[in-house]
Amino acid sequence: MSKSEIITVQLGHYANFVGTHWWNMLDGSFGRQLPGFEKEIDHDRLFHTGLTMKGEETYTPRMVFMDLKGSLRHLRRDGSLYESGDADVEQASQLWDGSVEQQVSEPSAKNPYLADLDDADAAYLDPSGTPLLAAVSATAAQSTAAASTAAAAARQQPVVPLPDRRYDLDDTIEVWSDFIRPHLHPRSACVVKEYTHGSESNPFDVYSHGIDVMESGSVASAFEDQIRYFAEACDRLQAFQLLTDVHDGFGGVSTEVLNQLRDEYEKKAIFSVATMPSSFTDMTAQRVACRQLGAAYSLQKLAEGSSMLLPLCTSAAAWWPGAQGHSALQSSYIDYKPDLWYHTSALLAATLDSATLPYRLQRSDCTVHQMADLLTPLGRKVTSAYAALPFPFKAGQKLVDSFAQCPALHDPSLSMAMTPMTHDDDMAYAQYATMRGIPAALAKQTEAGDLKPDDAFRTYLGNTPSAMINSSCYVNEASIVAAPFPNIFKSDVTIRGFVETEETYLRPAEFPVLTLPVMAAIQSRNCTNKLIEQVVNSAEKTHPRRQFAFYQSSLSADAWSDAKENLLQLADNYSE
Questions:
Q1: For strand 63-69 and strand 189-196, is the pairing parallel, antiparallel, or unpaired?
Q2: Within 10 Å of residue 43's Cβ, how many Cβ atoms?
Q3: Mean pLDDT on 361-371
Q4: pTM
Q5: What is the CA radius of gyration of the chain?
Q6: 3-class SS letters over 244-305
Q7: How far apart are CA 160 and CA 297, in angstroms?
């Protein structure tokens, strides 16, 4: 059992896109421990060990998610580890003396990745159909490869190991459950039945809708019970990670969930991540106004109730699409589609996966509380994130030489600012920085007097104008970007994620990038006030009191003046 566990909460469809990529990356890292290195990442911080009714051990994300009806598709609400598919029919027959007729609609076809994943799981079933431990545990890389090979051999078809295969899923991903890799616990899913995903006639697009859903009682009560289940299973719960959408009704849900967590777990840290897509298909004036007002209310409530808040979006100039001057983030090594949630959420997840390593390491005493204390002085609850995806390391080059050629971590020529409007030349007040994916054997630190990789990283941070206060960690294990991570890396990024400049050695298109060296950081920067002020100004321009669709019984028009005042005070906290 981990020294201190963390419960992850995911609210909303885009937040679940981000969370799914993150859990896939974590699941893919099992079994990839480097020879000669001790285990570095403590997966027990985020994963829950349990037992089925048959006594079989399971290892699933310690996570509760909420989404609308219709978002699960092929994913069973109660998971696939603990009960048979006929559980609902059997339960109904016990409560009813008459006959029970089960009507089953034809399921939609699974994409190639999910189909292969099913084959990998099927290869781990014994003759009686009982899942073996290797099947119910989070899929280790070598185990999945063996399973995929065995399943294909039964069909007499050649196969490439599942984690190393290239999948083109851009046109097949519709919802986040179309590409989820690990099994989920039956207590993880919470579905809002009053609204349907993608509904035009009854959209869940207003902040106050989320408050109304939670105040209705049934959803809030079920959600609270699910959180309590995971909390009571922890030896020493330290914190919550809250990933939430803020552009629709889930902004209102997050407000109520924060109130729940603060009431019941008063002393636990809450690290909130506000996710915002950079593209929507519906850009009517009414929808845009509701998103802008919802983002403003959500930002204010999340900052007020969280230990630390991190807004994330791949928009370079605004926290929502449609704002004047909106443009997508650019990178020298990435070619992605800003209008695909499957792509943009992968970038945000890769950033979170590396930036949160300080409190997920075996050898580290860092906690979420400690990270928040460093990064949120004087009421500066809103932070910003940066990531070099990949860190531009050339095979055969010394790591110290790579650092010597790099500008400050937050420089746009090196990293992508995953928090809009936070790229500037000023030094940050403080940062937690992570470097990962270049083991000492590859760093070429072989000459007498060469710094160790972690010392070289600290020296780099001290020599560049990144932050006045630096805290850092160096991890040998690379970030896992194998399938179903999208194929967004250019050909000069090798299979191992290094940068190749010679045309002869460019990566062929049919080979995916599997791992990635990453430099990432969460910072406290003065320029964050620009984002907060923009949120206020954009919401103010929508004439809040005229947005009658936005205000319902749970939210009065007078609430905007209080939210505005609190946001402006928050922005003032960043003044020098």
A1: parallel
A2: 16
A3: 94
A4: 0.89
A5: 24
A6: EECCCHHHHHHHHHHHHHHHHCCCCEEEEEEECCCCCCCCCHHHHHHHHHHHHHHHHHHHHH
A7: 48
